[in-house]
Design brief:
It is a single chain. This protein is globular. The longest helix has 23 residues. The protein has 132 residues and is mainly alpha-helical.
Length: 132
């Protein structure tokens, strides 16, 4: 897959807010919240995502993906066929579906590792260390 099927801010929202918050990974929430701010997402939006997805000023498609990510992070076996069908009805491509599942799984594993070893959140790097 040459291009990303899902936009970077959406993947950060999945990592930071939904998966990390659902799994209780403070490190992940902090690190990816900083990444979202770097990508231009207002702190208010990040706060709304942490409070609940219903109030977040995001496209309906993103809300649906984030809701599924939160439920999958909590209990993947609770996902229903109707929820998956809704994603397809919103026009989710096969590539986006694979990337969605990959992002959720990756950040579940990372949150486990970070929590297991109680990794502290570092201070954000200074601008001169930015590689982007």
């Amino acid at each position: 897959m040459d291009e990303e099927a899902l936009e970077r801010p959406l993947k950060e929202m999945m990592a930071a807010v939904v998966v990390a918050d659902a799994r209780g990974c403070a490190y992940c929430v902090g690190a990816h919240s900083m990444a979202l701010q770097h990508l231009g997402v207002p702190q208010e939006t990040i706060g709304l995502l942490l409070q609940g997805l219903d109030e977040a000023p995001l496209p309906a498609e993103w809300i649906a993906l984030l809701q599924l990510a939160r439920r999958a992070a909590a209990d993947v076996h609770a996902i229903t066929d109707a929820e998956i069908a809704r994603l397809w009805s919103l026009g989710l491509s096969d590539a986006a579906a694979v990337e969605l599942a990959s992002v959720i799984e990756l950040f579940i594993a990372l949150s486990f590792f970070l929590d297991l070893f109680a990794v502290p959140l570092d201070e954000p790097p200074s601008p001169e260390h930015h590689l982007g």
